[in-house]
Amino acid sequence: MEAELYKSALVDAIIPSDTVTDVSEILQAGAEAQNESSQLLVIEERDLLFFDERLRTLAVIRLPHCDEAVLESFLSQLSFKIDVWAIEESPGNEQNTPNAAPPRDLVYSAESIQKNEPIVLASETANRGQTLTLVWEIEILLNRPRFRVPQPAIILIPSATVTAPQRDEIDKNDDLKPFQPLEANALEPMRFLPGLRDSPPYLAASRLERVLPMTTTHRHRVHLQHVPSRRHRAVPATMSRIRYQKVNAYTTTPATVALLDVDIIPFVRVAATIEHVDLSLKNGSTETLMPGFLPMQARSGDCITFLYRLHQKLGPNRTPGFGLVNPNIDVLSIGIRLAIQLSEKCHPFLVMNWTTNVDFTPVLNPSFGPPSQSIQRPNRPTSLPVHPDSGGAASVAAVSTSLQPAVEFDSRSGVSISFTAPDIPVRVGEPFAWKVLVVNNSAKMAKIAIIPLPRIQRQATQTQMLAKRHAPKSSTASFHPSERRHTKEGEDIDIAQAIVDENVVYAMHHSYPVPPETDLLALTAELRIGPLAPDQCHESEIQMVAFEVGTLRADAMRVVDLIREVEEGAAATGVLADIRDLPDIVVVKATSERD
């Protein structure tokens, strides 16, 4: 009976497409349908899976009809597990290397499935007769594979073994029977005593009789057959990355701004909901800069950035994180919960957890940027006026007909750039910001860099070039043997001739022209934007400061196409573009200067 039971048993693993309905209702609907496929249950399976998903899976075993006692004995001897493998499903690799096995990686293994109580279904068909179907509902964590492939696929391989019990487990309380050969250890039954389990006694049977001891028999195991595994396409539902930005402002504790980018998959139409995002430091603290935004709805192709402020914990007893010697390095734990809706009844749930290192090492040049609080004087003016005789009230009406505060520029690559200036006059010595809006209207990925050029250095005039070219060069004095200073005592001494050449002095003074005084300075040296997907936009700022009262204009804003620069080189046509149609800047005196 047991041999026939093991021989006819089949094992399968099914991923139902319905993740909302209760498993009993799914099984009832599948029992009423006709099974024409190779799987054991008539349940619609999912074709597309997502990495980092909590996958709802059904582990199934079909047996011939048997009594309840036989079924309980079968479950007590059963060992059931499911291995989840990630493989490469690329037709190009199969054609190139037909005999080579595709790369595969074990991403998850669900063991000891038989410990939970299964759902038993009894059915009868004309082909198989009466059968029993055992169903376990389990959850599989679909981890990401350790290799990168263009077309990954997931296969579930169930494995079920039935192990026969040993003789000593059946008759461990019985006495020794006559004419029964001893085992290798004559005191083997004593190992079941409570006090001798840790150190069981041993007495060789060869010392008691001349008969050779009975060889130890291995436990007999039977492997149940499983149906052919089916392949499921798998893609990452989201790609996440973390970026850091040092805070140059003066603070009592070192702080860093973390930017967590979450990109929703663009080539599969899904409706996602970001339910929870958590960042935590091992030795420090985190502070969200975007409270109240979760849960957040997102669609395919969206790129969402979450801002967090990371504070380093200072103290003499602070232990360095992650076993590192540098105390400025800490461990950052990141967790994201994401819900996706593929259909009305298919709602996959994703959980992403990983750790990374964050460096709180201060910048090498702390004086760069805004000055710290310790070196500021209370009566020190913000800046000095360049022209003290100029009037305090700037002519605002003179620029009322200009194109400010917004100027838009469309590049040849399909990227639209808008510069928006403040609608109120700025003050001398006080930083102000221009809003920069970049929209990618092309069908390709865009990545640009904007370099502010408030004042472009003019080339030298023709007179200065001629003065440098024809200026006499310095020369050393030449001595003649007859040109010596005669002394009354001692030998003669060689004395250099005095060089007095007005041309040399004039050329030296005019070869280094003094640059003009700066009236407009850019605090943002370079602004990098991208990569931007098609139909995406990005907004940023350019910081500048003015040192002269009046109406000023920036010379240009240089735009560099970083993608074309890498592909074609920096000297290619269309890589650089200067925007000269920019908003006007109305500058008035500062408050301290008016007083």
Automatic annotation (TrEMBL):
Question: Which GO cellular component terms are attached?
Answer: trans-Golgi network; TRAPPII protein complex
Regions of compositional bias (Polar residues) in chain numbering: 370-382
Q: Where is this region: Disordered?
A: 369-391, 468-488
> Which biological processes are named by the entry's GO terms?
intra-Golgi vesicle-mediated transport
Start and end residues of each Trafficking protein particle complex II-specific subunit 65 IgD3 domain: 411-587
* Record's protein name: Trafficking protein particle complex II-specific subunit 65 IgD3 domain-containing protein
